[in-house]
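Q: What residues go here?
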């Protein structure tokens, strides 16, 4: 079944809402800011939400996606949603972290090691707790999760197989302290740069490289300005769909339920997209001339340097070492020492 049309079984449970709950409600077209372009995991999530929303509301409500950062930078859209001037935004979780630091636990390097880890964490009690935190901290509510895959390193200059190979490279990172400090643990000082400026920065050689999942690299056509890929896999990229809490509270209780159920369907659509498309997209990048390599010794050097230097520095901001250990326990990993 096509992932855009695949709705979760919960739609059947709440379908009656489309007839009884919103009969008198005003039709709404939710405006959704999307950081990435067409063909991305973010688009898959947005289209999954739109399809479910229309299904559940009997066609009364819909959504419009504004792709490729048309409505501004991802961090700007958090501010706009917080004050109610934007309905929704699909963005990388590292761009919510400055507003709600506890979600940074999902961006600590080498915490999430698989899609299954990501699903378990986001859809369980930890994901619900982080959603409550973003409501209180940032005035936005997470209603769906995009699973974009592991961030891998690209650059235009040389193959990178070891930490030493990073020397001399200028790497773009988001304006996120955890990601900046991860690169510093590997011996280089990265260049923070807005997402909307990244392609131009790579094209003009202001920066040599960047990191993102395969689906994003393909959607953004980075193969036009990058040659080499290294599977550092240091962060599993999670990109939530947020709704303005102000906008959410203005909805009827029936419409709120529809939005939440549509979010669940969108989350399922995202996971389906990644499972179906990632290997295919990786081959597309190879066909476009990119060269893909694995780090030496199964990333051991990258992992040791990043976890030893970065994890302790951010214990306080994510809610304490106990919070990290709760995350690790949820996915069957050993706790860290206090």
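A:
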């Amino acid at each position: 079944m096509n992932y855009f049309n695949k709705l979760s079984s919960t739609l059947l449970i709440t379908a009656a809402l489309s007839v009884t709950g919103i009969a008198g409600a005003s039709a709404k077209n939710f405006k959704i800011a999307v950081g990435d372009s067409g063909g991305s995991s973010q688009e898959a999530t947005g289209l999954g939400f739109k399809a479910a929303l229309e299904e559940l509301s009997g066609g009364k409500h819909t959504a419009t996606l504004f792709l490729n950062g048309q409505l501004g930078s991802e961090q700007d859209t958090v501010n706009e949603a917080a004050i109610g001037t934007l309905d929704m935004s699909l963005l990388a979780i590292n761009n919510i972290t400055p507003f709600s630091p506890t979600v940074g636990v999902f961006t600590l390097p080498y915490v999430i090691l698989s899609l299954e880890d990501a699903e378990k964490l986001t859809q369980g009690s930890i994901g619900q707790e982080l959603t409550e935190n973003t409501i209180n901290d940032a005035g936005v509510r997470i209603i769906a999760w995009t699973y974009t895959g592991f961030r891998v390193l690209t650059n235009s200059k040389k193959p990178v197989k070891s930490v030493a190979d990073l020397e001399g490279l200028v790497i773009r990172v988001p304006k996120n302290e955890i990601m900046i400090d991860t690169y510093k643990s590997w011996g280089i000082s990265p260049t923070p740069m807005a997402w909307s400026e990244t392609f131009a920065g790579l094209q003009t050689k202001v920066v040599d490289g960047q990191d993102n999942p395969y689906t994003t690299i393909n959607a953004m056509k980075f193969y036009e300005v990058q040659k080499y890929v290294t599977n550092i896999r240091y962060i599993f990229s999670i990109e939530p769909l947020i709704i303005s809490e102000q906008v959410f509270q203005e909805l009827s209780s029936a419409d709120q339920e529809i939005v939440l159920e549509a979010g669940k369907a969108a989350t399922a659509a995202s996971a389906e997209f990644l499972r179906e498309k990632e290997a295919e997209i990786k081959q597309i990048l190879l066909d476009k001339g990119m060269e893909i390599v694995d780090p030496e010794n199964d990333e051991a050097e990258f992992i040791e340097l990043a976890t030893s230097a970065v994890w302790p520095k951010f214990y306080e901001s994510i809610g304490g070492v106990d919070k990290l250990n709760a995350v690790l326990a949820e996915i069957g990993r050993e706790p860290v020492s206090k």
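A: Context that may help when evaluating the design: DSSP finds 14 helices and eleven strands in the chain. The longest strand covers residues 140-150.
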